[in-house]
Amino acid sequence: MPVQEDSHRINTNIRVPEVRVIDDAGKQLGVMPTSHALRLAEEKELDLVEVAPNGKPPVCKFMDYGKFKYKEQKKETEAKKKRSETSIKELRIRYRTDSGDLETKLKKAREFLEEGDKVKFSMRFRGREIMYMDLGLEKFNEIIEELKEVSEVDERSPARGRQIYIVLAPSKAAPASKKAPKAKQTGESNKGNDEAKSSPAA
Fold this sequence. Notes:
Blueprint: E1 18-22, E2 28-33, H1 34-43, E3 47-52, E4 59-63, H2 65-84, E5 87-93, H3 99-114, E6 118-124, H4 133-146, E7 151-156, E8 163-170, H5 182-190, E9 196-200
Parallel strand pairs: 1-4, 5-6
Antiparallel strand pairs: 1-2, 3-4, 5-9, 6-8, 7-8
């Protein structure tokens, strides 16, 4: 069988004297000389693939490596497609938004984040309100602190101009919940239309 250079060592690229072997059905065959494992793989017309290089000895499995790589690449493509479909939910606040209104928006943001969406908090300053930019930035820091268990800062606008924003992405460490049924999502997005809107991720 041909030797392939890839993220896994396979066949004659496995140069340790012995390996622990799992067959193509998932059965443990135990520890054996690498040369013997290679012969068994060849008899099955399969590749010997090192799947746990840090094991003592390393763990290898019989498989069709070409088919394995195809499935791996397909999964990666699907994951990229899913990431590109992530939407950004925008919530508008003011530097003087009261605690009750802010709590409502934080609850909504948490729901969006747990469903796998990003959340953008935007703030606009009108006229002389620009002098309260620091209060707006403090409000953003408060939001980041409140949502730190389920999110991480993905983007933050520079503190200049009359509009500032932050974008929060779901935390990689936070467990993702199931998407809500479509009818429920529609009802949620229609409620308070001036508070939340969706736009495709950049």
